[in-house]
Specification:
By secondary structure, this protein is mainly α. It has five helices and no strands. The chain folds into two domains: 62 residues; 65 residues, no CATH class.
Length: 149
């Protein structure tokens, strides 16, 4: 909530400062038009974020629902952070392709949306596509690990 308020204020300050620059037109934009648009977008998104808990509470009160938080969401976030930290730690040892596959597999299982077979296929395709994109096509040197890919 505090972060949303700060982003809202930052967007407002950005808008006010951009009004001191020439705005121009849409066909010939001035140097203040882009910051003005960004300030408006920041304020709008922050306002949505600020109002979201209130609207959700009002909707659950109308429907007679319980609390607005999902059970186990904090646990899922901590498990997600642990998986990411483990993947980072194992990147040099195992190499990018294997870590990318295991990371995707673990995260898909954490989300709980897929069966193991489907998760493994998606993880394999994602790891393969990212390997082809980054290592082969863009020639970015990523850790090879003991596999040597």
């Amino acid at each position: 909530m505090v972060a949303s308020i700060l982003v809202f204020l930052f967007g407002g300050i950005t808008m006010l400062l951009s009004l001191q620059l020439p705005l121009g037109t849409l066909r010939m934009p001035g140097s203040g038009l882009f910051p003005l648009g960004l300030g408006l977008i920041l304020m709008g998104l922050a306002a949505c974020q600020i109002l979201q808990p209130r609207l959700r509470a009002a909707a659950s009160a109308k429907s007679g629902g319980g609390g607005g938080t999902a059970d186990g969401s904090a646990h899922r976030v901590l498990v997600f952070l642990g998986i990411m930290a483990l993947a980072t730690a194992l990147l040099d040892l195992l190499g990018f392709p294997l870590v990318a596959f295991l990371l995707m597999l673990a995260l898909l299982q954490l989300l709980g949306a897929r069966r193991w077979r489907d998760s493994a296929l998606i993880a394999l395709l994602t790891a393969g596509a990212s390997y082809i994109l980054f290592v082969r096509w863009l020639q970015i040197p990523l850790p090879k690990g003991w596999i040597g890919l």
